[in-house]
Amino acid sequence: MSTAGQTNQRTALRRPVATGHGDLAAYARLAKLDIYDYYLGLLVVWTLLASGVRWKPQTFGLLALVLLAEVVVVAAMVGFDDVTGYRDGSDAANYGSDAARRRLARKPLVAGTLTEAQALRFSWAATAIGSALWAAVVAAAPHRPVWAVVLAALCVAASVQYSWGLKISYRGFQELFLIGLGVGWTLVPYALLTGGASGFVVVQAVLFGSGPMLFGLYSNTNDADGDRAAGRITVATLVSAPAHRVFVAAMTGAQLALIAGSAAAGAAPWWFPVAMLPLVGMRLAHLVIGFRGDILRARRIAIHAHRVTVVLLVVADLTAGALA
């Protein structure tokens, strides 16, 4: 096929005729409301709290407000991400050829169920509302350590500019963002409720944050060609496929080392690595499956491993509280 023909084909893929109706289901898909993995950190935060704080009505109220703020900010982030992916053709390239497994309908611009203008209006409105909600969270919090307030603002700013504005996910910082948002959204609400964070809290925040980063690495592996064509810089687009598998293995190993090392260093109870053994098994499973080439199956297992991590951390925190 000629260069002109390839260009026309790419344009046809990413410029479907949108209905323009913009029903609620299409906006829900734009906001990716079915992807709740970052929000699960609030369960970990709640179980980390001392029992005297955990059951206060004010605690439930603040956590509910944080949840709402997180959902709206993520809606802005993924809305802008879809607009950018639609404009540069990467979503059509990454989803159009694999719709059965990756559900093309989750990309309403590519699927033609929303227009670009509708998606942009939604994303800007979510940005304004999400920023206001986070300001309300800080105002309502019983504690306001400066570092936590700054970290909250940084998380909001980075989320909105993930694929828009500074486009940090296009500039080589995607992997750092994926882990950083989970860490931030665990440490910030905990600190706003308690005034600080212990070593064990930091360990759990990093364990939680590394979950989305790990399953994101498999997405990057699958999307490397489309991302490279769109100019999106990730580790997967910069190195060979074998080198990226080594990188995924190193990041997986780093999480497992954190589990063992935190107990050895005294930041976590001695029994913490034992409690996390189911996670270790799942991490090794998706690593082997990914190395064998079934990237999307490995990604699914990595997503489930992140959710299992939350369950294990909740049980560990409740156990630690009972033993204290």
Describe the structure.
- The structure is a single chain.
- The protein is mainly alpha-helical.
- It has a single domain (24-323), classed as Farnesyl Diphosphate Synthase (Orthogonal Bundle), CATH 1.10.600.
- It has 18 helices and no strands.
- Helix 12 (199-222) runs antiparallel to helix 15.
- The longest helix has 32 residues, at 57-88.
- The chain crosses the membrane at residues 35-53, 59-80, 122-140, 146-164, 176-193, 199-218, 246-264, 270-289.
- Its main location: membrane.
- Pfam families: UbiA.
- It is a multi-pass membrane protein.
- This is UbiA family prenyltransferase.
Protein traits:
transmembrane; globular; UBIAD1; 324 residues; disordered N terminus; single chain; 18 helices; mainly alpha; UbiA_prenyltransferase; Farnesyl Diphosphate Synthase
Provide the fold topology:
Blueprint: H1 3-14, H2 24-30, H3 41-48, H4 51-54, H5 57-88, H6 90-95, H7 99-102, H8 108-111, H9 116-140, H10 146-160, H11 174-194, H12 199-222, H13 224-230, H14 235-238, H15 241-264, H16 272-275, H17 277-291, H18 295-323
Helix pairs in contact: 3-11, 3-12, 3-18, 5-9, 9-10, 10-11, 11-12, 12-15, 12-18, 15-17, 17-18
CATH architecture identity: Orthogonal Bundle
> Helix count?
18
The helix-strand sequence is HHHHHHHHHHHHHHHHHH
Low-confidence stretches: 1-20
Tell me, rounded to a whole number, the average pLDDT: 90
From the 3D structure, determine the CATH topology: Farnesyl Diphosphate Synthase
Number of domains: 1
Distance between the termini: 69 Å
Structural class: mainly alpha
Sheet with the most strands? none
Apparent shape: globular
Give the helix level as a range of percent.
Answer: over 70%
Strand content: under 5%
Rg estimate, integer Å? 20 Å
Oligomerization state: single chain
What is the CATH domain class? Answer: Mainly Alpha
Total E-strand runs? 0
